[in-house]
Design brief:
With 321 residues, the protein is α/β, with parallel strands linked by helices. The chain folds into two domains: 128 residues, NAD(P)-binding Rossmann-like Domain (Rossmann fold, 3-Layer(aba) Sandwich), CATH 3.40.50.720; 178 residues, Rossmann fold, CATH 3.40.50. 37% of the residues lie in helices and 14% in strands. Strands 8-7-6-9-10-11-12 form a seven-stranded parallel β-sheet, with helices on both faces. Strands 2-1-3-4-5 form a five-stranded parallel β-sheet, with helices on both faces. Helix 1 packs parallel to helix 13, helix 5 packs across helix 8 and helix 9 packs parallel to helix 10. It is elongated. It comes from Roseibium aestuarii. This is 2-hydroxyacid dehydrogenase. Keywords: NAD, Oxidoreductase. Belongs to the D-isomer specific 2-hydroxyacid dehydrogenase family.
């Protein structure tokens, strides 16, 4: 009996290859002289795809008539049209849980850096200004007495909230609906949440429904002492509105791990002293990325061995019935 053919269009963590190679026929076109030709040669037989940033729509699915499962590397899967996949009987999986703690740690670190201006303070020391000009100016921001508003109180949002409570922050949140087992204050819109908090933390997924959910009105509601932290998706924020708000004092500062057109970051954000920028490193430790890779492989293997993946996305749960 032939092994299931799995396509890995882009280079991924070695742990994925190590786990898959003995049990599937793994095709890695990125290693070929002509990747497109390699994909075309096997497309009709591909049963699984290990996906990293692929845009999967109806046209993409048309190329793989035998496709059964797409195992996405990452908890977010906004580049994959999961509803269309489900309608065609194609399972989609992601990698939740294994990156929750790492991303929550990053979010808290970014928040503290931004509020206390630690990035700017380090640059001050490295430039020799401490010795030349005296102590770094007192920071305008402080965590004391602040309210943290979390947009997207899922696994990661809850882990962030638990950490933030240890810092004495009051927690509020916005999501699609109020969560019955959550005691934090709920607000029915992002704008209402921004009015009620002074640090707005974005942990929501990307996609058309959430694109530019943080716009000029939300930033105005956040106010001149407000801080925006984004560890969700760059598409959540209208970057032009954010740049204007930072420049004219509509909000105090911003900490950003994600951007609309990664890896390209607007020059204005790079030159502003009241902005902390990170290169999308929320889950970027060897330990966590390897755990994510292992889950990608295990989802594929579980599907081929048992007909059930480990972590199906919500849109595809119905395929298991």
């Amino acid at each position: 009996m032939s092994l299931p053919l799995v396509l890995m269009p882009r280079a991924m963590r070695p742990v994925i290859r190590d786990r898959l190679a003995p049990k599937v026929d793994l095709v890695t076109p990125f290693e070929a002289d002509n990747p497109d030709a390699t994909i075309a040669r096997v497309a009709a037989s591909v049963r699984g795809i290990a996906a990293l940033g692929q845009t999967v729509d109806a046209a993409y699915l048309d190329r793989f008539p035998a496709l059964e499962i797409i195992a996405n590397f990452g908890v977010g899967y906004d580049t994959i049209d999961a509803e269309t996949c489900a309608a065609r009987g194609v399972m989609v999986t992601n990698t939740p849980d294994v990156l929750t703690e790492e991303v929550a740690d990053t979010a808290l670190g970014l928040m503290i850096m931004t509020v206390r201006e630690f990035g700017a303070a380090e640059r001050y020391v490295r430039a020799g200004r401490w010795a030349a000009d005296g102590p770094y100016p007192l920071t305008r921001g402080s965590l004391i007495g602040r309210t943290l508003g979390i947009v997207g109180l899922g696994r990661i949002g809850k882990a962030i909230a638990a950490r933030a409570e240890a810092f004495g922050l009051k927690i509020a949140y916005h999501g699609r609906s109020r969560q019955a087992d959550v005691t934090y204050d709920y607000h029915p819109s992002v704008e209402a949440l921004a009015e009620a908090c002074d640090i707005l933390m974005l942990v929501a997924p990307g996609g058309a429904e959430t694109r530019h959910m943080v716009n000029r009105r939300v930033l105005e509601a956040l106010g001149p002492q407000g801080v925006l932290i984004n560890v969700g998706r760059g598409s959540l924020v209208d970057e032009e509105a954010l740049i204007a708000a930072l420049a004219n004092g509509t909000i105090l500062s911003a900490g950003l791990d994600v951007f609309e057109d990664e890896p390209h970051v607007p020059q204005a954000l790079l030159t502003m002293e009241n902005v902390v920028v990170l290169p999308h490193v929320g889950s970027a430790s060897v330990r966590t990325r390897d755990a994510m890779g292992a889950l990608v492989a295990d989802n594929l293997l579980s599907w081929f061995e048992t007909g059930r993946p480990i972590t199906p996305v919500a849109e595809c749960v119905g395929l298991l019935k």
